[in-house]
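Appendix B: complex inputs.
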Amino acid sequence: MPRAGLSTQRVVAEAAAVADEVGWERLSLAAVAARVGVRLPSLYKHIASLDALRTEVSVLGLRQLGQAMTAAAVGRSGSDALVAVAEAYRGYAQEHPGRYAATLAAPLKDNHEHVQAAAAVLRVVEAILDGYGLTGDDTVDAIRSLRALLHGFVSLEAAGGFRMPVDVDRSYDRLVAGFDATLRSWAEGATAP
Amino acid sequence: MPRAGLSTQRVVAEAAAVADEVGWERLSLAAVAARVGVRLPSLYKHIASLDALRTEVSVLGLRQLGQAMTAAAVGRSGSDALVAVAEAYRGYAQEHPGRYAATLAAPLKDNHEHVQAAAAVLRVVEAILDGYGLTGDDTVDAIRSLRALLHGFVSLEAAGGFRMPVDVDRSYDRLVAGFDATLRSWAEGATAP
DNA sequence: ACGGCTGGCTATCTTCATTAGCCTTATCGC
DNA sequence: GCGATAAGGCTAATGAAGATAGCCAGCCGT
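Resulting structure:
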């Protein structure tokens, strides 16, 4: 019996592909095993459990999402950076819906790599908001709001929530532009008095 | 063997309770059967399948969410209505996380009741936005943006995404207030020239 | 009382995650 | 080269869960 030449990396990558194809919630060891051409129990030589595999797919997704966002942010600042990162965020979620869903679904507890990857994403967001001159709790409100905005739009879109015959790209652009204006007003309010 | 006195209504209600307690993704027939005190196959006298049950829980959630939003909106308009409905939306999601998750997860295809319930929610949102004097595609952009905002914040909060030691209520209020301002600016832009 | 529908049940099948244990293939020390 | 050893496949078996078939008791209207 020839060896399949698997590795944890490979299994995680294939699992991510399965998640992208059939949906994060339908990711199963059976599907991964079939895809890589081994019997199901063989996977246990490379992963601890289905839950562990899911966590690793989540980490992979967070890392890739962070990279995409970082790449979009370099060389830009202020509104330009905001728009570019928002675009990259949505683009990643559309290209890799399974991985994207994975980034939200995980425990985030006591997993160093997971915390690291999540922190990297957060850092990009913080860097963008730096350009708006926010202070104190305003920064936290802005981070939360931006994440809510991006995630909300992207996940509703993925769930098929936007059925009206109006350009979805345009709606997204306007949402982001509106938030840009909101951030500016927050900054003004903080520095004015 | 005494009859348990079940009904489709009852099974759906108990399934909703299970979803709220253990999470939408962990809703199982086994858990529902154990909760109502019957054997698993007995449930099939009242529901067609697990998927069908999930759809019905989804409809229940949409209806209740719509009622909560409608109740919050009556007697208010403009910013007041927006803030009140946003509060009701988040409140429902916090009280019934399983049902809330259910409202997003369903197919929405060829199920009349489901479409009806979703339309009721949409109607409340449209009614609120009416007060801002938006026109044409602006209305669609606003609907999508508002849904994205509310859903994004609420689902990130439910996923444990807001860990920083800053008041989450405040962040939500500011996000909603910021969007209120954005809507006003859209309306101005449309009527100005 | 009785015939039929209704709503429980047990038994069985399938799929999937998981564990145990075998056996072959690489690889490393000599 | 060559054998020891670890690693990476496998089959077999267990248990949970969804789904189906078919039995049988209670409740109904006549």
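Residues 1-3, 28-30, 40-41, 44, 49-50 of chain B lie near DNA strand D (CB under 10 Å from a C1').
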